[in-house]
Amino acid sequence: MDTSPQIPVRHETIASTLSRLSAQWGWFIALGVLLIILGLTASIHILTATLVSVLYVGMLMLAGGIFQLIQAWRLKRWSGFLFWSIAGLLYAGAGVLAIINPLAAASALTLLLGAALIACGALRLWIWLQHRSQRQWQWLALSGGITLLAGLLVAAAWPGNSLWLLGLLLAFDLLFQGWTLLLLGVALRRMRTR
Questions:
Q1: Residue 93 near residue 105 (C-beta atoms within 8 A)
Q2: Residue 175 and residue 131: Cα distance in Å, rounded?
Q3: Domain spans in the chain, listed from the N-terminal domain onward
Q4: Against a cut of 0.70, is the pTM above it?
């Protein structure tokens, strides 16, 4: 028989969560407007947005590599030390290269994006082929086809699209996030006034 003390589980309903969040509606609207402004700015300055996003990724990679090297020195076992050291050096080195030459890093990241889209699209189509007799799986085929086509378009236009594609994706992402938060804030405000 289990005699361990039971921790009470707090179940929160969607209605109670929305009610609690409705008090913060202003922050959602403010953040939404800020992200829309940043998205519009990024869409006007596509090359700058690409370079800023690559520099950001490079700094994150450098920090990740440094932390992996610290972990390697903390392990002190030969097999773990060697693995973490090599991984940390490669990661930090890639981060430094991205910071030093963001245009080359943008080119590499764009090619990696195209390859990832091609792989995801092909995988979805393969899964669909395995299950095509089941109902509603044609949506997976459509999704796989679109993703594969997007990857092929990215790869076909490479390296010419390296200077603008990542910045354009960043601009779209900021705009969609901004509109989502803005509309959520408006909905929360309406909920609060009822």
A1: no
A2: 36
A3: 18-193
A4: no
